[in-house]
Amino acid sequence: MRVVETLLKELPLPSSWNKNLFVLDGKYTAGNFRNLLLHAKERSTYVHRGSSRAVFRVQYDGRWTVLKLAMNRAGLAQNRNEAALLFDSSLKDLPILIPGIDYDTENSLPVWIHEEYATPVNDAYLISTLGTDDIGELAHLVRDAAGPADWELDVGSADVDHEELDAFLTNLHILISAVDAPARDAFVTDLSNIGNWGLYEDRLVLVDLGVDDFVVNRFYTRRYPKIPRRVFDDE
What we know:
five-stranded antiparallel beta sheet; three-stranded antiparallel beta sheet; globular
């Protein structure tokens, strides 16, 4: 019992939260997801949700950060994928990735993942920085390339910093190459979603990277995963 209590105290969640709610012991039921989501909504700033995860803004060490909570099994799979990339020793310092702070290791699949906070970006920013508002086009350009010599880019804006753009493409190529080839198609396609990108310390970073072919084929091919009821009814 003391060991369990010690583990719960070490979970990096706000001190006012009931940490017992976040240790599900494999009981990934709609009721358990609903309880932890309602608990988070009452104690933090709800930002937005997708079909599988909800994002909350929390204070941590004197700054705003985000906590992503799984809403269903698809969210657990996305948290697992995201944590695997953000905390990979060879990728965690990649400039185009939002820095990860910590993630849930008490459950067999991570219920939550804690990351730095990035502000949203718009099409105008992407065009001024990358010469296009379609990051997906850039991702498909570099995904199968061996390196910079293999991609040709027609940048429409004369104001684009070509060295910064080339560095971005190089880092994008490194990230895509780190995803297992059989799971890469959906990952690359999802990069085109501008909502998956943000601005952190004046640089463009990827803030949502949990989707891959396994997640799409397992959870989205026939129908979307269910969202716990009576949590987001006010939207």
